[in-house]
């Protein structure tokens, strides 16, 4: 199975049940799928140099439209050569649309058909973010994968509100498509993803998927999950949502998640992920290992000379003991955040590679069972 588009080619090389592995080929490099994208909110993956992020195995990172438009400003980034040159990352970058961050500012925003008027959380200045402006910002940043501008309501909102929000997002998707296509060279060299909405309602998600198909996108995201609904509810949606989207395009589950979330989502046919969890946890002393999460602030690690995870090949596990990492975390040393973040990102990439390998050899079901036994026990 392969999908050919200018400067964008998605191919599936193997499947195992609903799980699939393949690649997205773009002008700045190949993205092996299923893939996890480290989050570089403000033109940096926190506590990591770009070359160290690449060394973990990451093929692509995510940048944040909302934060970059406010500081240092999209126009400034463009004058400085674009986001890739600015942050010294020469591989693909996906930028989100800014919609999720703006929608979270419920006390600082006003939503209309035109877009969202909001006040900056930094200095209170007033801004307007619309589908057209979101596409313009992402074009100025020079991102390789651009996300449509959408609204993302919580799943516990009344159904009529979720339906109205989904319909608004689909109208914004059409406007995003038109504005992206007007982007000249950037449009020719990059890709645009639509975002399915509808919260936990299968009927609304089907309508959203149909609307996105009618518009046509290079890839399709499953939005409106990982916003407090819980893993069981999320998996309930993922049992059907990926199948509502085109089979010849990548499927991206936004904002997910924990390692066991990733395994369950790949099992259900998802290809791309992003989440702040491995970096945020690294700064707070939580490490992810093949035997489950480890709180390095716990006193039981104070004299533990063993490696953080003997099954991990990252530099942190090769060189430093749990006792030293515990000391750094308790002391508030910056090096502690750096070392645990490097481990967490390496673990996530090793997990993705293990899933790709398991799918390729037809052993994903066994891999998932062993992973859950060790990780969740």
Number of strands: 17
Helix and strand content put the structural class at alpha/beta
Most strands sheet: 8 strands, parallel, barrel
Name the beta content range: 15-25%
> What's the tally of helices?
17
Average pLDDT over all residues: 95
Q: Which residues form runs of ≥5 with pLDDT under 50? A: none
* Total separate domains: 2
- What spatial order of strands do you see in the largest sheet? 5-6-7-11-12-13-14-15
Named CATH topology of the largest domain: TIM Barrel
Whole-Å distance between the termini?
Answer: 37 Å
Helical content class: 40-55%
What's the CATH C level of the largest domain? Alpha Beta
CATH superfamily of the largest domain: Queuine tRNA-ribosyltransferase-like
Cα-based radius of gyration, to the nearest Å: 20 Å
Coarse shape: globular
What's the CATH architecture name of the largest domain? Answer: Alpha-Beta Barrel
């Amino acid at each position: 199975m392969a999908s050919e588009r200018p400067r964008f080619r998605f191919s599936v090389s193997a499947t195992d049940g609903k799980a699939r592995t393949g690649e997205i080929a773009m002008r700045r490099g190949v993205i092996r799928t299923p893939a996890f994208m480290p989050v570089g909110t403000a033109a940096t993956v926190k506590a990591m140099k770009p070359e160290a992020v690449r060394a973990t195995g990451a093929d692509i990172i995510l940048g944040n439209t909302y934060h970059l438009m406010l500081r240092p400003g999209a126009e400034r980034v463009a004058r400085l050569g674009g986001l890739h040159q600015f942050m010294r990352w020469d591989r693909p970058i996906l930028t989100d649309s800014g919609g999720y961050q703006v929608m979270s500012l419920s006390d600082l925003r006003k939503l209309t058909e035109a877009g969202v008027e909001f006040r900056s959380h930094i200095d209170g200045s007033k801004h307007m973010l619309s589908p057209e402006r979101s596409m313009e910002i992402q074009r100025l940043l020079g991102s390789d994968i651009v996300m449509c501008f959408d609204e993302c309501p919580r799943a516990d909102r009344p159904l009529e509100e979720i339906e109205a929000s989904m319909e608004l997002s689909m109208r914004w998707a059409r406007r995003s498509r038109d504005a992206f296509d007007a982007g000249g060279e950037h449009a020719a060299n990059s890709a645009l993803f639509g975002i399915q909405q509808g919260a936990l309602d299968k009927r609304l998600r089907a309508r959203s998927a149909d609307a996105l198909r009618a518009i046509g996108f290079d890839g399709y995201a499953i939005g409106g999950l990982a916003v407090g609904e819980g893993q069981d509810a999320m998996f309930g949606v993922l049992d059907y949502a990926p199948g509502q989207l085109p089979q010849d395009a990548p499927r991206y589950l936004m904002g997910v998640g924990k390692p066991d979330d990733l395994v369950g989502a790949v099992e259900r046919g998802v290809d791309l992920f992003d989440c702040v969890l491995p970096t945020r946890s690294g700064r707070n002393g939580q490490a992810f290992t093949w035997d489950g999460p480890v709180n390095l602030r716990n006193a039981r690690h104070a004299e533990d000379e063993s490696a953080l995870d003997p099954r991990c090949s990252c530099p942190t596990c090769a060189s430093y003991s749990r006792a030293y990492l515990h000391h750094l975390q308790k002391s508030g040393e910056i090096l502690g955040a750096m070392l645990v973040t490097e481990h967490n990102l390496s673990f996530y990439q090793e997990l993705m590679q293990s899933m790709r390998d398991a799918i390729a050899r037809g052993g994903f079901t066994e891999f998932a069972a062993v992973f859950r036994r060790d990780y969740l026990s």
